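Problem 12. The chain below contains 364 residues. Write out its predicted structure in token notation.
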Amino acid sequence: MRILQVCLAYPPNFNGGGAALTAASLSDALIRTGHQVVAVAPKLSGAVFTRPKLIGEVHHEANTVWFLGTWLQVGFNTINPTAIVVIPRVIGGADIVIIHGLRTFCGSVAALCCLLFGKRYVLFPHGTTVPRWRSLFKKRVYDAVLGKRIIRHAERIVCLSASEREEVIQATGMNPRDVLVIDAGLLEKRLRVLRQPLAWNVARILFLGRLVPEKSIELAIDAIAEQELRAKYEIWIAGPEENKPYAACLRARAGRLKVTLHLVGEVRGADKDDLIMESHLLALVSEYESYGRVAMEALLLGTPVLVTNTCGIASELDQSCGLVVNRSVREIGEALSSLCAQDFRQLRALRNSCGEEARNAQQI
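Solution.
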């Protein structure tokens, strides 16, 4: 079968974020089962305005990827004029189309082409079904004009967690049989070996991902500030500073509350794996995550996790590999205090068991 993926982002241009890695992992899985895959994605950059031109074809893991020139970019929201030319060209040879994300320029073009040419398509909303955070009026206008139609005509809607599936069904009224849950975003990894044993004098708590307000890192800063021995904790943040005012706010907040904070920028590949393994705990306390792939990546590398119940992966975790708490400063603080009590006894135990648990739970 010939499959076209229209993505929010795609490696090697962008290696961070669950949406990009999910699309790449799905391509690899489809290719291994004998399908032909073509992917189309915007070329992301730090520039707000760039010349709108087609960057070209890039071959990645045996499938063809078209990276489209970006004229305007705000976070993951892009305008790509060349999508109007490229997507109709490649969609004609596809048997089915996979669209990642709702309310994107490339995804909208792909959905309209599918409706025009009678092509079947599957939608991966990646947590975008319900309008959130900002530009709510614009999102509701888009949904009224086009978004609801895209959802209604999708062959299937594929979610990354049971909680996201429930939200989609409630928000759209879709037949539950047409809303599936699949974890297509996990890359199989072998547990790597730490170059040196972890030191246990201070707990390094890692936040990995885009530095934006939705990640709610200030909750962890406030939770540590309430601890009697706040010097037992360090917060490390690794990811692109997409929102520089937010990064500055976190620095100021940590300095005022005397909480140790390190911002190390974006890390990739082996450096990213090393940073995860050299951390005692990975935390994910976002306002919302459709799944939370980074938590499973940490578990596969033997690092336990602390996640809030607003993350889709929370329903798959048990106390042998991490803790799930309500999204509040008090509960996050209590969890950290429990993990680090008695010379980090509970945290040490979690590190010993979470790698095996994650391998057993992994399903691609």
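Discussion. The mean pLDDT is 82. Students who got a different answer should revisit the alignment rule from Section 12.3.
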